[in-house]
TrEMBL record:
The keyword Cytoplasm does not apply. Residues 1-26 form the signal peptide. One of its GO terms (molecular function) is hydrolase activity, acting on ester bonds. GO terms for biological process: lipid metabolic process. This is GDSL esterase/lipase. It comes from Triticum aestivum (Wheat). Belongs to the 'GDSL' lipolytic enzyme family. Keywords: Hydrolase, Lipid metabolism, Signal.
Length: 338
């Protein structure tokens, strides 16, 4: 099974990116060039599957300013000045992977795709809030396992052709959603959550391979304790040790399944370290949230390109760009892309 795992690590006063790529089998010589991308996962890769939800700002903020408001040019050459359903100020991880394949951006989302049709570039099934599992009472639209269920059903009914699948690469983007909520999601402990999470990730990669996908990219976890969500109680001065231990054990278990590592690179580029560019003025106030009388309830930095984090958990476009630039060469090597 050809699978590549990659991760970014953040630590120190500034931001240190330690980037790695690993593959089970050498992919220097491949019999095909991937032309299609299928995306599974959570908000690290969601490009608009989660629709606006009336009355629930948390679940619809990605469709409102300041999300997507960076003054950048999109894949069609048009200047983007509006939110596109992405949890960033512009592009997210799936867009950068797509660009490595020669595509302008991530393929169309599952919910925006007409019935009985799959774009030649592929399809994006990722949803904000998706974990490996769905738990009773959760609001998330579709778990990662359920995303693969839909993918499989679309292959069986002919919506996604055999040619689409055999000339594709799959991205499994996981940011640690289950670990952010493990204490209220039915797991008996963090150890139980890690064991079930990593087991399910491996099972999903095997399912994708059995369905005909030959190349699969899988995220390792960034140190969770260094994300704004976990280190806000210290005003971003210190990482949360427990969150980082969870990520370490998670990655160690995946590494056992995906054992071959390549060299890493690191550098410091961003100011304000762990502090996000956009954050609410309170523990339950979100980036972009406003009072009914239009008073802003959030802070927005002057230049998102100088920050790694956009909001509590998601990188800025510049953050993703820095990570994916470091990973581009080993990923292209793995995929056989010139």
């Amino acid at each position: 099974m050809k699978v590549s795992a990659f991760f970014s690590a953040l630590c120190g006063v500034g931001l240190l990116l330690a980037l790695n790529a690993a593959s089970v089998e050498c992919a220097r010589h491949t019999s095909y060039t991937p032309q299609t991308l299928f995306v599974f996962g959570d908000s690290f890769a969601d490009t608009g599957n989660l629709p606006p939800t009336k009355g629930n700002f948390e679940m619809s903020r990605q469709w409102k300013a300041p999300y997507g408001m960076s003054n950048r040019v999109d894949g069609s050459g048009r200047r983007q000045q509006h939110a596109t359903g992405r949890f960033s100020d512009f592009m997210v991880q799936s867009d950068f992977i797509a660009k490595m394949l020669g595509l302008p951006q991530s393929p169309p989302t599952y919910l925006s795709t007409p019935d009985l049709h799959c774009d030649p570039s592929g399809m994006n099934f990722a949803f904000y809030g998706a974990g490996m599992f769905r738990f009773p009472g959760e609001m998330m639209m579709m778990s990662v396992s359920e995303q693969v269920d839909v993918f499989e059903s679309m292959i069986k009914d002919g919506t996604i052709s055999h040619n689409h699948v055999t000339h594709s690469v799959a991205l499994l983007a996981v940011s640690g959603t289950d670990y952010n909520r493990f204490n209220v999601s039915g797991f008996s402990s963090a150890t139980d959550c890690i064991e079930k999470e990593t087991t399910e990730i491996i099972a999903i990669t095997q399912r994708l391979q059995n369905l005909g996908v030959k190349k699969i990219l899988v995220n390792n976890l960034q140190p969770l304790g260094c994300t704004p969500f976990w280190c806000r109680p210290t005003l971003y001065h210190e990482c949360d040790e427990f969150g980082n231990v969870i990520a370490f054990v998670h990655n160690k278990k995946l590494k056992h399944k995906l054992p071959r590592n390549k060299g890493s690179k690191s550098y410091k580029q961003f100011e304000a370290g762990r502090k996000p560019c956009c954050e609410g003025y309170g523990p339950r106030v979100y980036c972009g949230e406003q009072h009914p009388d239009t008073d802003y309830l959030f802070y927005l930095c002057k230049d998102p390109s100088k920050r790694f984090f956009w909001d509590d958990t998601h990188p800025t476009h510049a953050g993703w760009e820095a990570v994916m630039k470091q990973l581009e060469e080993p990923i292209k090597e793995f995929l056989g892309v010139v």
